[in-house]
Amino acid sequence: MRGRTNAGLLVGGTLVGLVVLAALVSFFWTPHDPTLVDAARKLREPGGGYLLGADKFGRDTLSQLMVGARTTLYVGIVAVGIAALVGTPLGLAAGMTPRGWLSELIMRVNDLVFAFPALLLAVMLGAVYGAGTLTAMIAIGVATVPAFARVARAATLQVMVTDYILAARAAGRRRTAIAVRHVLPNIGSVLIVQASVSFAIAILAEAALSFLGFGTRPPTPSWGRMLQESQELLFSTPRLALWPGLAIAVAVLGFNLLGDGLRDHLDPKLSRIRGGEER
Amino acid sequence: MTLYLVKRLGVLLASTAAAAVVVFAFMALLPGDPAEIALGVNATPEAVAELRSQFGTDRAPVVQFLDWAGGLAQGDFGTSYVTGAPIGPQIGDRLGVTAVLVLGGMVLALLIAVPLGTFAAVHHRNLLGAAISVASQLGIAIPAFLAGILLVFVFAVQAQALPSGGYVPIAENPAEWLRGLVLPWLSLGLVQGAVLTRYVRSAVLDVMREDYLRTARAKGRGATGALWRHGLRNASIPVVTVLGLQLATLLIGAVVVERVFVIPGLGDLLLNGVAQRDLLLVQGVVMVLVAAVLLINFVVDVAYRLLDPRLR
């Protein structure tokens, strides 16, 4: 059981680590300038300093992939950050006053936002303000708020019936103090798992938006747009679609496995249930 | 049950109305006056004012909203500021295409997920069961549009067995219509099937641990027989919930897949509308998609009650 838990964590962590490493290295070094257009290198085959070849503008594919990792992580971090910073307090408040009007209001608004998927929000934001990385990040972030709020609320409800909360309330602690000092640390693991899973969803959303032209604008490299540009060359140069596709799959798989692994690792209760399942 | 249905219907109507307010408020923020955009920079102020009153954009926002929402209730989406064509019929045409795409993808996903997930649960201790779990993890990591590009590469570029895109109406040529939809259906169905397989597996695993299933087996039914007779209905309850969420995801996935395969559905209409800055059209399509998501959630909640008598 123990070994199996660590396997998911290990594989997920390695894949995520790979993406993070590529992004970090790209700040200091890429094989070539990822945005340099050079007709002489147009559709250059892999090899000779161009490990993965070049695209129809002569841009080095490996360099683009590395900087694309940066774009992906940037969008993911900001989007998940928005969702966590907005969703967690809302979920906490709703969970601590389960029968109050505030809880009811929060959950109703939550349900309403839930009906607006990231893609629709991004298209609407793009139509009003012009599409770009910022509108994509905000749209994905806002669309992810309900997931965080729900998870935070469910976890808070469980924590609120424990003896230590009762003791804190009996001792006359203020509600905000209870929320920050007792509830938040105890739902932290659930939130970390949610963040990892949300990150995977954010990567998928960013790729889809860039593919549609509602994400990161050229010339900044992004995996989704690399895919979109490769589509017309699918018949002649399929490798151009292969690499960004693989990068997206590796990143999403990594964050999903990491989330699952963390869930087993951080929540002994769930591990025990899983342990029973594997009997 | 009736009381629940009435209450839940009320929630559906209220949230649809709230969504309409949000969509309208959002699009009303759009910088630029549709009348000025339509007439260009050389238009006289009188002409702009006249067109503005023709469009109705000179009225107070609240009046404009009530007019728009009142029209929606009767299926009237207004007239495009850009093309001058009524929007409702366009959405109606495209809705059918997208619905066929989404429902086909869903059916395919179920055909994949129910047998595979059940098999993986029953055989969760051996290699094949584990292999299915790994395969579904990989499937989840691939977005539908990427699956579409890969499928085009395999079946259109390499095998040259299916078209790489395009759409032929069913009335024109049913065989070509079907051939054109195979790859889009597969793109949506394979990915959603992978997601659903995981849920079916864990739902069946949960049911397999229940006492009533042990009782059924003690009474002499085989593992498969007991599961078939007593387990599937119980396992279907969590799966139906996920199914609803997935249907909403599929609807949005279809927007992107339509782009990959050049299919004239709602997604195509929406993206063209944005490109042409056709405000009212975008507003209408977004409203239809959001209303569809809300309606799906409603159906799921009601189905949940019907499947689980304990909740009635």
Automatic annotation (TrEMBL), chain A:
Predominant localisation class: membrane
Gene Ontology annotations of biological process type: transmembrane transport
Topological relation to the membrane, as annotated: Multi-pass membrane protein
Superkingdom of this protein's organism: Bacteria
Pfam families: BPD_transp_1 (PF00528)
Transmembrane segments: 7-29, 73-92, 112-145, 183-205, 240-259
InterPro entries according to UniProt: BP-dependent_transpt_permease (IPR050366), MetI-like (IPR000515), MetI-like_sf (IPR035906)
Alphabetically ordered keywords of this record: Cell membrane, Membrane, Transmembrane, Transmembrane helix, Transport
Positions of the ABC transmembrane type-1 domain: 69-259
GO cellular component terms attached to this protein's record: plasma membrane
Subcellular location: Cell membrane
SUPFAM superfamilies according to UniProt: MetI-like
Protein name in the entry: Peptide/nickel transport system permease protein
Species this chain originates from: Nonomuraea maritima
UniProtKB/TrEMBL annotation, chain B:
Subcellular localization(s) per the UniProt record: Cell membrane
Transmembrane segments: 9-30, 99-122, 134-157, 177-200, 237-261, 281-304
ABC transmembrane type-1 domain residues: 95-300
Main location: membrane
Keyword terms, alphabetized: Cell membrane, Membrane, Signal, Transmembrane, Transmembrane helix, Transport
Membrane topology per record: Multi-pass membrane protein
One Gene Ontology cellular component annotation held by this UniProt entry: plasma membrane
Signal peptide boundaries: 1-19
Gene3D superfamilies: MetI-like
Protein family per UniProt: Belongs to the binding-protein-dependent transport system permease family.
Entry protein name: Peptide/nickel transport system permease protein
Protein's organism: Nonomuraea maritima
